[in-house]
Design goal:
2 copies of one chain form a homodimer. By secondary structure, the first copy, chain A, is of the alpha/beta class. Helices cover about 40% and strands about 20% of the residues of chain A.
Chain lengths: ~280, ~280
């Protein structure tokens, strides 16, 4: 049986429609890397993606149209984007959660070169080095955005920030900040310093107590390391200071996302006060 | 075939040994509630559980004994605890992760009545109201412990803090702080206030900016609400202030664990400075 495709206006796509098949492959990193695209699901992510001009194609069900007709219309009338009706099975195949509310968008990846992000003279940057957990990657994106960071650098062997779980955990922040991928973490840190940013390494064993860092209101890049191993020694050595969040009770450490929240908000408070 | 049990010293238990079967049922909330016991896996959790006197029985494999003989010996010689050898299949059945390093312990739940926790005159308390995600529950426990909170109250219809995922996310902190379960959240808040604690409700739409809360060094109980719905209106109204973590970028909000980290550490810093 022939499948509807984009030569049939008004068709409802199924799991076997070529464009749905191709979109579904974006659940795999290899296909995301090859195409420079990724999937974002649910109305919040789709709204942010549309605002950022990142949507290539929005797949919607009848239910999605009924509930979020404004988003479907914006995708359908936007320059460079289109909206395509799909059946419930096709949407379920494209979505990784059970509640995408009838919407899944194919988006263009948004990486910018570090030099472009630095041209905006950021006052707060988060650098994730070798972080492996996509939920943590997305949470750090969301927290960095909330704290006023304008760029997040995924350095070294970090997880793909366009992984579905990372996209969901970022709660739209992936579309707000400059996302930079830098394979060479040391070179990225050198560029951040050359741009006038102080480099602070978050390190549970650091010599400097977060509560005692002088001049936190200076433009700062925070380095965060992997969940299991922390920051590589060479990166820690490259930093201007290794800063520990003080542990006041019996816990051995904080998890990555909590430590990042405390560090980034310590800078945010000082930056706000210095303005 | 008869199975080894505790009448056969030196036996290696299997998945069909009655005590292993009973322990495995603790993966279900109903059985945890009925027995007042729960499971903790891996060397870090087992070490903390032993230090807290919470271990009832430590199941270990030959590999677990080789790697963590000190823990096995402490469990085997402790008052009220014992150590039991199991085969690899039995350990795999008891564990929820792939890397428990040959150790799973049956522990006694550690709830204390709120009155007992308050008798210690805590200066920082975290209250989780209606939080549903076990990973968040465990992360808040860990962060609260790190920030110097001495009690964490699970109020209203909150997730079971002895859920395996919560135990793992707490990274041992479940064994450090006073864990309180309070079905009636309003009564718990009233008791906290009567004990001299100021009540601050974390609320994304709160009238008070976290950066502008006066006298954060006063003894404080922080209230955190559910991931999806925030705090119930009645609890917010009961608080002395509704405090928002300021959002400086494009994010709509912080996730629960990040907001809790920022709020608890704001208090921790002020408490430390006031000492």
């Amino acid at each position: 049986m022939p499948q509807p495709d984009d030569r049939q206006p008004g068709a409802v796509f199924t799991t076997r429609t070529p464009r749905v098949v191709a979109a579904r492959r974006l659940q795999r990193r290899r296909d995301r890397d090859e195409t420079g695209r990724f999937l974002a699901e649910g109305p919040q992510a789709v709204r942010e993606a549309l605002a950022a001009g990142a949507v290539v194609e929005l797949f919607f069900t009848a239910d999605g149209l009924a509930r979020h007709g404004d988003l479907v219309r914006r995708a359908g009338t936007g320059t460079g984007s289109r909206a395509s009706a799909v059946d419930d099975d096709a949407l379920a195949a494209l979505a990784e959660t059970v509640q995408p509310q009838g919407l899944v968008a194919v988006c263009a990846q948004r990486d910018v070169p570090l030099a472009d992000a630095l041209r905006k003279a950021p006052r707060l940057v988060a650098v994730c080095a070798d972080i492996r957990d996509p939920g943590n990657a997305g949470t750090v994106l969301r927290t960095a955005d909330a704290a006023g960071a304008t760029a997040v650098v995924f350095a070294g062997d970090s997880v793909d920030p366009y992984n579905g779980k990372a996209v969901r955990a970022s709660a739209g922040s992936l579309f707000h900040v400059d996302v930079v991928r830098a394979r060479d973490a040391a070179a990225a840190v050198a560029a951040l310093r050359a741009a006038g940013l102080r480099i602070l390494a978050a390190d549970g064993y650091g010599e400097t107590d977060l509560f005692e860092v002088p001049d936190l209101g200076a433009p700062t890049a925070w380095l965060f390391g992997s969940e299991a191993h922390g920051l590589p020694g060479a990166l820690k050595a490259q930093a201007d200071a290794r800063v520990r969040v003080p542990i006041l009770g019996g816990a051995e450490s904080l998890n990555l996302a909590a430590a990042a929240a405390v560090c980034l908000y310590a800078s945010a408070k000082a930056l706000k006060e210095s303005m």
